Structures are given as structure tokens and as C-alpha cells.
Amino acid sequence: MSESQTERTNVDFDEVAKFEALASRWWDKNSEFKPLHDINPLRADYINQRAQLSGKKAIDIGCGGGILSEALAQYGAQVKGIDMGEAPLGVAKLHLQESGLEIDYERITAEEIAEREAGQYDVVTCLEMLEHVPDPSSVVKACMKLCKPGGHVFFSTINRNPKAYLFAIIGAEYVLNMLPKGTHDYAKFIQPAELSEYARLAGLEVTHMTGMTYNPLTKVYKLNERDVSVNYLMHTQKPNV
After folding, report:
1. In terms of CB atoms within 10 Å, which end of the chain has fewer, N or C?
2. Containing structural domain, residue 146
3. Residue 6: pLDDT above 50?
4. CATH number where 114 lies
5. Which residues bind S-adenosyl-L-methionine per the record (predicted)?
6. Is 62 within any annotated ligand binding site?
7. Cα–Cα dist 189/158, whole Å
């Protein structure tokens, strides 16, 4: 498959449809998106601490209804959000009327916008998205391409191991009903070593990684550098040239 064909086809429309069906509840903090709302302050603070968002130009890949995009804007970044779901993008645009923030949303793939806006962003985020596309390495390459030399690229996804299957699928989807059944496909989970290799091959330097843990008794999420066994965040940088 040629590179241009990959750009056009690196979308799993069944995955897009899952989130389209839930779009109206994206900003309901007691809906299926409660976990996303709960972890968002941790994610946004991690990104801000490492990239100092104020005054920076940022792009949020796979932005959905705009939860992270708005948090980045609140930290003072100039934000663009992209997604392939029309309904979530519609919700994201509508929510701007409530938040009063300015964010540019567009329905486009990472690969397509990377061709158009290469090297234009100080900060690139791609969180909870790589496990929903056919070729995650292609998205990682696009993120690198979008980033300015010396800029920051952040990824988050789910590890692939028995514990992750137990916590992220059995626990979250079937026992605790935190997520709709079928949200995740275990085969698409990505081990940290695999994501590190995608980043390295794309020309990014992995600078830090931390896990995100959940205590079902206290219902509290925390970042934990020593535990990347289920959810994890990765900070990479594009070398200065």
C-alpha cells in the first residue's frame, strides 16, 4: 500500500461510529465519558508541565468532543482539534458557546493535515486515539511531521497484557460499567516498547513515560511513573535541526 493510500484508509469507520453514537453525551460528566472527564485534569497538567502551553500553538489529534482541546486552550494554547467523527465535532463546536473558548475544529485525518500543515505546531497531542486506528505508526509519523523542530508530541494509550485486559475491558466495560461494552479491542492495545519504537522510527525522542492508575474503591486516578501496566502517557520531542 502506498503512503497516500495509507493516509486515506487509516480510519476504522466502525470505531468512528461507536463515538458518533455517544456524541450527545460527550460533555455529560456522569455519562460514559465520566472516566475521560476524570482523567483530563491529570493529562492536561502533565502536558502543561512538560510543554508550557501558554502562547503555544497546539493540535489535538482525535479530539472527539473537545474535552482535552478545551483544557489546552484554558492553559493559554492556540488550539486546533481534528477528528473523523462529524457528530463529536459538532458537539465540540457547540460547547464553545458555553465555554467561550476559541478552538478551530476540522474533520480530517492526521496524515492529511500533516501534508498541509507540516512543522507548524509547538505541541501535538494524540491521546486515547492510537488504539482505535488500523495503523497507529502512521499516525505517530503524522504527529512528528506536524511538530516544529524542538516541539513536543504526547501520546496516551493502553498497554497490551493480561492485566490491561482485566482492568480496561473486563473491569471497565463489564464489571464497573464505566465504558460501553465493545469500546476497546484488546488486539489493538499497544505496549510501551512498541509505541517507543513507532516514535523512534518516526524521528521522535522519547523523553518521559508515566502510567495512569485507577483505584476502584476511592474512584481516584493518579499518575504513577512506576506503573505503566494499563494506561500510560508518553512525552516525546522532535529534535532541533
Report:
1. C
2. 13-157+185-209+233-238
3. no
4. 3.40.50.150
5. 43, 62, 83, 127
6. yes
7. 5
